[in-house]
Amino acid sequence: MPIFAGRFNTRMTATTSSIGILGGGQLGLMLLQAAIDWNLRIHIIDPDAEAPCRHLATSFRQGSLTDYDTVYQFGQSVDVLTIEIEKVNVDALEALEREGKKVYPQPAVIRTIQDKGLQKQFFRNHNLPTADFILTDNREDVARYTEFLPAFHKLGRDGYDGRGVQRIASADDVGKAFDAPGVLEKAVDFAKELAVIVGRNEQGELMTFPTVEMVFHPEHNLVEYLFAPAEINEAIDRQAQDIARRTAEAFGIVGLLAVEMFLTKDGEVLVNEVAPRPHNSGHHTIRANVTSQYEQHWRAILNLPLGDTTAYQPAAMVNLLGAPGHTGPARYEGFEQILSMPGVFPFLYGKAVTKPFRKMGHVTVMDTDLERLRQKVAEVKQRVRVVSN
Amino acid sequence: MPIFAGRFNTRMTATTSSIGILGGGQLGLMLLQAAIDWNLRIHIIDPDAEAPCRHLATSFRQGSLTDYDTVYQFGQSVDVLTIEIEKVNVDALEALEREGKKVYPQPAVIRTIQDKGLQKQFFRNHNLPTADFILTDNREDVARYTEFLPAFHKLGRDGYDGRGVQRIASADDVGKAFDAPGVLEKAVDFAKELAVIVGRNEQGELMTFPTVEMVFHPEHNLVEYLFAPAEINEAIDRQAQDIARRTAEAFGIVGLLAVEMFLTKDGEVLVNEVAPRPHNSGHHTIRANVTSQYEQHWRAILNLPLGDTTAYQPAAMVNLLGAPGHTGPARYEGFEQILSMPGVFPFLYGKAVTKPFRKMGHVTVMDTDLERLRQKVAEVKQRVRVVSN
């Protein structure tokens, strides 16, 4: 007896339907928040007993996401399985998929994306424009390609939130390269970094969110803030949207695909990397768009019609990163002051402990006027600090 | 160590802050959803072990809201106490308040509003325009006032969701009057029913939401659907906003006050009744307004700056009531179909069992064009049915 009539998974019933998420961090938290509207029952597993989702899921259990048995057993206990982080045991997901469990995004997509080398090779194989690269096995290997420098050396697996990327400007920097399988990627002289989030359901229905522009922290390779829509001309926007769509189609993904791109100074758009899940570049959609990326994720993996991605107003997103020099219980300076600013929406992740540059929350800023939007962003960045004392 | 700097309750810390809600129904659910943004820890008590909030609160316990000891003990376990239903033990709340606990809305406000007689008397005492009325002790008493008919007889206490109101057209109907303390209220020849939700914090800062227009179900005295903003002229709107503001000031409420009003055919605005909490007439604000009524509730009771109540677009709200003739596990016919309509947002309350006319969910509908908005509302009403089979 389906709770929803129609093509929706008929095993989903009012009393027995259950969805599992591998990972209970901030992306899981925002997925949970969106799931409340449709009374979806969400079960979460995360290695951290103090993960942001711990109090809000139908059930929460502590467990490794990379251990075969743990992931396999968790997957068996739910009807539909999804992720909020790609560092998970894909072998277990494949076993579950073979047994007929709905696992979205598909394990094969996660496997490719987990490895930056496979990911780049995938772009090349599918004629998706991307910066030139060489797959490397170790540091010694990198030393062989000095004519390819300046380049970035990216760790093949397990890079995360700015870790796992090194700029190798010249032969002198080769010592900074990772002594593990990786990708040596031609440094792109880019004007902007863009991102487009794509949703795609089982039927192959596909929708993109408006193109956004990300500004990275100069040292920490983390999104510092973001503007939506990106300030680019129509032709560039069409290119970015088209590449994002083609990338999602190439993967055949069911779920969300966040496509990060470079806009080069020559006006070329290149795929940088992708994530098969909700993404930092889409937090603002909760407030600024008709459908948020989180709701779109549920629509996509439950094979429901995708939602309208139109924005109500221009928006920006400021990541709240732990202040340098502060490690310990978190406190949010300036929280109340920014609450009195119109069109300013803080979101705190509930992480007990702050660390330098840890993602502790974000602030969405909206305004119909772009100049005022920029002023508000500057004010938010100046006022809020995540500290410990 | 306050989690938020400023005037915010300094006992609220990252690890120890806790907020309690008396009641875990759909209003509690939407309060929980809004609380996720600020990582508020919410504890809930409800007499129903299967209440909609059971899986989503930091803690959920089953217990009576009208039992002194239960409410008192629950209140002692939290830092700030609020309600999502006014049928609670006010003696316990007053004891907690005397001991210095933050209880918002204030127990005195709840006490007045719990009793429709006291409520009407309050309006009269504060020169708030309201339909003429007589306080009655019992049915016999009603029979004495036949010259006052046609009128509505309202049960003084414990009326809820359309129960506790009887139309007494003439002396022949007196048998329908309640044989308990109540209010005999002059039937108002109204053109429309309006509502304004007011937020007010400890500082006395006050903000109103735009005036909405409610259409009641002809038989069941339940909001069937709602349009925001109300189609009224500016002078009437000013009157409604002004009366709502004065009513909230008269109560000195900290929290939300939903003020339901009649617009008479003569263009007069009269207060009908009020609720000291989030209200059915504000569900659409989750999607349609910069700040939702639920976020505004948190801002008000935590003494934070109130949020901008501006609407992004005209909106409507359709209550999803259990279909007549269906009692049992709920199923939502037409859910998927309406998800494919742009600007249509269903919200399901997660009640396991549907009953005729039970509030099972609602659908927010938005459109920049009022005619299209009406068409979408008609389509939603025609397509969705909450059934059991």
UniProtKB/TrEMBL annotation, chains A, B:
Query: For this UniProt entry, which segments traverse the membrane?
Result: none
For this protein, what reaction is catalysed? 5-amino-1-(5-phospho-beta-D-ribosyl)imidazole + hydrogencarbonate + ATP = 5-carboxyamino-1-(5-phospho-D-ribosyl)imidazole + ADP + phosphate + 2 H(+)
Q: In which pathway does it act?
A: Purine metabolism; IMP biosynthesis via de novo pathway; 5-amino-1-(5-phospho-D-ribosyl)imidazole-4-carboxylate from 5-amino-1-(5-phospho-D-ribosyl)imidazole (N5-CAIR route): step 1/2
Binding residues for ATP: 116, 154, 185-188, 193, 272-273
UniProt domain ATP-grasp: residue ranges: 120-302
Which UniProt keywords are given for this protein, alphabetically ordered?
ATP-binding, Ligase, Nucleotide-binding, Purine biosynthesis
| Main enzyme class | ligase
Enzyme Commission designation: 6.3.4.18
| InterPro entries hit by this protein | ATP-grasp, ATP-grasp_carboxylate-amine, ATP_grasp_subdomain_1, PreATP-grasp_dom_sf, PurK, PurK_C, PurT/PurK_preATP-grasp, Rudment_hybrid_motif
Keyword Ligase assigned: yes
Task: Establish whether keyword Ligase is in the entry.
Answer: yes
Describe its partners and assembly state.
Homodimer.
Q: What the protein does?
A: Catalyzes the ATP-dependent conversion of 5-aminoimidazole ribonucleotide (AIR) and HCO(3)(-) to N5-carboxyaminoimidazole ribonucleotide (N5-CAIR). Catalyzes the ATP-dependent conversion of 5-aminoimidazole ribonucleotide (AIR) and HCO(3)- to N5-carboxyaminoimidazole ribonucleotide (N5-CAIR).
Recorded family membership: Belongs to the PurK/PurT family.
Its recorded name reads: N5-carboxyaminoimidazole ribonucleotide synthase
The source organism is Nibrella viscosa
Q: Name the gene.
A: purK
